[in-house]
Amino acid sequence: MQHKILILNGPNLNLLGERETEVYGKETLAGIEKALTKAFSKIRFEFRQSNVEGELVNMIHAARKKQDGIVFNPGAYTHYSIALRDAVAAVSIPVVEVHLSNIHAREDFRKNSMIAPVCIGQISGFGIYSYHLGIASLVRHLEKK
Ligand code: CA2
User: Fold this and answer.
1) Whose CA is nearest to atom 13 of ligand 1?
2) pTM
3) Whose CA is nearest to atom 12 of ligand 1?
4) Would you kindly state where each structural domain of the chain is located, as residue ranges?
5) If you classify domain 4-144 with CATH, what class do you get?
6) Which residues of 65-98 are buried (b: 16+ CB within 10 A; e: fewer)?
7) What's the gap in Å between 24 CA and the centre of ligand 1?
8) How many whole angstroms from 99 Cα to the centroid of ligand 1?
9) Is 77 one of the annotated active-site residues of the chain?
10) Is residue 24 among the annotated active site residues?
């Protein structure tokens, strides 16, 4: 069965590869999307990114009827967005939270995630490979159901 997965990225992730490459790596968001498409050729992906909280809420809502699940990097919204947490909790499709950096090994304010408790799991610290692990975990979850 072909799975449909939304890869959703939050604020500032459109600038990947331009700055802070020591933290987030040299790959651009377009490069990550290309690598995922190649690595998971059987999955039908939709790739979306927004810097606007309400747009991310709308994208999560829209996904509930057309996707099997979401791999979500909420960026800095991870740490304080109740609106995104409620959006994830409001949809019945599974969501995996991913981060390029290890949020538990950084500033204290990054250690807490508002979103993770309403996700099926969180993957953090493996660079672009966090997305690979997130997709693989989501597929496994979908196929177990
Ligand atoms: O490690 C991650 O994936 C983060 O979600 C990235 C967020 C950060 O606020 C989270 O705590 C962890 C920030 C993304 C910023 O991306 C940039 C891209 C280019 C230049 C500077 C920042």
Assistant:
1) 75
2) 0.98
3) 75
4) 4-144
5) alpha beta
6) eebbbbbbbbbebbbebeebbebbeebebbbbbb
7) 7
8) 8
9) no
10) yes
